[in-house]
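Intended use. Records like the one below are meant for learning the mapping from a protein sequence to its folded structure. Do not use them to infer anything beyond what is encoded.
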Amino acid sequence: MNKQLLLLLIMFLPFMASANITAANQTKTFEVESPNKKLSPYTGMSRDHWKQAAEYLLGCAFQYVDNIKDPFDLPKQEGKSYPRNANDVPTARMEELCRTMFLAGPLLKEEPNLTLNGVKVADYYRYQIASFLDPQSPVYVPEKKGRGHGGQKLVELGGLAVSLLMAPEVFWHPLPQDTRDKLAAVFKTYAEGGTIDMNWRFFNQCLLSFLHKEGYQVNTKYLEELMRANLKAYVGDGWYHDSPLFDYYSMWAFQMYGPLWAESFGKKYYPAEAEQYMKNLSDITKQYPYMFGRDGKIQMWGRSITYRMGAAIPLALTGMLNSPDIDYGWMRRICSGAILQFLQNPNFIAEDGLPNLGFYDHFEDCLQHYSCRGSVFWMAKLFLALYMPADNPFWTTRETEGAWAKMKKKAPHNVYSEKTKILISDHAALGMAEFRNVFTRNSGFYYGLENYNRLAYNSSLPWQTDGKNGEVAMSYVVEGADGKWLKINSYNGEGLNDAGWFCRTAEMENDKSVTIDLTEKVTANGVVRADIVKTNAPRKIRMGFYALPELDMPIVTKESKVDGKKAITIDNGHYALTTVLADGWDGIEVVRCKDLHPEADNSIVVNLTATVNGQKELKSQLIMKKSKRK
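Structure written out for the chain above:
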């Protein structure tokens, strides 16, 4: 063997070894070993299985750690996520550290000597936290200067504060006193600095509370302002308003941080506010559980959806209420189902052994620029439920299907909140949960995108991106003057009326000359639409219902008649969706799509087409069924 070849082998041996570990991890999805069907007849998941799932996810990150001095340095996925330059790297590493602590904390409280990839996990986190003080460390956290907020570092320190409040004996008390004092001084500069008037207030609130609990002097007046501002954001029916709208941040931020703060700090120091946070949590069962499918699947909705099953955490935290009025068997069935939705999906883990940035597979269209590879580990928010003891009713109550077991199959089960104008419709025969909502044009940059602007969202049929050529699924698009297709930018309207129709007015991005009065009635297996489009000049209009991904068999299409109207059915072997061409539309067509769907490279959607000049009513119908193909 010549010297040059030998040198190349020596250089690349570490990478080859890493690739072997990655390949082994990548091909194995999470398995529920020895399922407990007596306690959990639907998922088989007990509390022990939750711990195994948490260790499975934490192990994904620790495959990139060789010793306690080795900071997380998870590989970036191509696309809009950060780090985008060298200055972003320290923050990304800090994010990877703090977010994985949501997995490590509950595990270490019960297994202090936990070791992953040959590394003692508790020693690792304590060493890395202490390294925040070292200017030469890749995770160095300098003191924040000035009144402004601390940016992403504030976010991660806020998350860290939750772990420190819940498990101080694991992460904080073993550190030398001098180290703790110096860290506290740094943390205080972020805690007492500015914030953003939304869920970010909790990051300051949790930091201030942790420092106060540990005996450090803090600005308690500011702490009180923050906790009360967060409470003031509560609207009702389990929902907080995250300035400027409702989304999962109401759940994995307000309805998570609030109760955990109350349990770990507030009940002792601010009992009145703590009681209010817990009362708001108790409202969660009024509507939110119905947003999950019968199998516990979450909806693909809103920004930061790469946090995935983290959306279920408030349902688990209801265990802290210990209320006889809560069906804990249903709450756990939902939460366990949400875990399995992702951990048992073959595309969830990428080739590098880490969860993909996306929903299932890597999917750029649902991501935001503020995410890095470690961001995915905020899905671990759901595993904070493991801080509840094994005898908590959330863990000991036998699984049930809750309200689903009593739903009628011949009608939708609608749960409406007048306070939020969110309509949830459960389809008992299909096991699907759908919802519709309203949001305004001033809701910000993210909210005119598919994450928010679909006509409806579905637990079994995730949204598809609009295409450049007018391909559209569960929405309208309008051709602009420049030939580009414009998306819906906002919805305004009354919501659900007394006749059972959900009414909104849609406006298009960058073009107020087109409005669409949307009127729809949910049926047992679909929806009937009677929309009115208003334009001031001839405009091409397209509308589509849900798209179907091509999964394990080719999608077939079929033309037919429904009540004398032309219809097209698309069937992917899992679901069969029929679009009925009713009054007003000019045409109907099957559209084959590429790289627009989160579940598959190829997908199909049926689009209705029309040209409108002035005002025109457009009627249509969607019929959803389970496929009979095998």
